[in-house]
Specification:
Blueprint (H helix, E strand, L loop, with lengths): L15 H24 L8 E7 L2 E7 L5 H8 L18 E4 L2 E4 L12 E3 L12 H8 L9 H14 L5 H7 L10 H15 L1
Parallel strand pairs: 1-5
Antiparallel strand pairs: 1-2, 3-4, 3-5
């Protein structure tokens, strides 16, 4: 047989294609598996006791230590006025008050709030009467679709209480963490300035 036509003898075992395919699957499994493990629900013994006062009402909850305040409010307490927007602390739609301070509930762990006072948009009205800020948002058309409005109002109330509602520039600066994709900002600023008079 001529040397140029000599055939190579096949060595028993997996082909290169089979080997590479199997290795890729193993690597993918190793990367994906920890994510699935992290997503598994906590065992009963891992739950933590948390006592909160939410909108003036005491609440005793057993929660997963990984649960956010946003999910606890919406899924455990049925307070769905607090909205889930970006879920990354960037849009402000989930703003609530914790001991009078505004926080984004999507980045706040419920387990860290034991003994604290939580106020949501549902807790602003008193005896059926809207909070001055809620009424001002209506009067000045401070919203369009309304999705961001609960967070805008909660942040606006805190802004006035903090003393940052003196000028349009200050309002823009201290409300910059709340995004309105409908661009109702002129109405929002007008509402804040109007409500400030009633909140003194």
């Amino acid at each position: 047989m001529p040397s140029g036509s000599r055939k190579r003898r096949r060595i028993p075992g997996p082909s290169r294609r089979t080997f590479i395919g199997g290795t890729g699957a193993a690597v993918a499994g190793a990367v994906i598996a920890p994510e699935f493990a992290a997503a598994e629900p906590a065992e009963a013994h891992e739950l933590v006791d948390v006592r909160l006062t939410v909108n003036g009402r005491p609440q005793h909850l057993r929660v997963d230590p990984r649960a956010t305040l946003l999910d606890t409010l919406r899924e455990r307490l049925d307070l769905t006025g607090t909205k889930k927007g970006c879920d990354r602390g960037q849009c402000g739609a989930c703003t609530v008050h914790v001991d009078g301070r505004r926080v984004v509930a999507c980045l706040t762990l419920t387990a860290m709030l034991d003994g604290q006072q939580i106020t949501t948009i549902e807790g602003l009205a008193r005896e059926g009467e809207l909070h001055p800020m809620q009424q001002a948002f209506i009067d000045h058309d401070g919203f369009q679709c309304g999705f961001c409005t609960p967070g805008q109002i909660m942040s606006a109330v805190a802004l006035v209480d903090e003393g940052h509602a003196g000028t349009d520039d200050a309002i823009r600066e201290y409300m910059s963490g709340n995004v309105c994709r409908c661009s109702a900002y002129p109405g929002i600023r007008a509402a804040i300035k109007d409500a400030k008079k009633e909140m003194r």
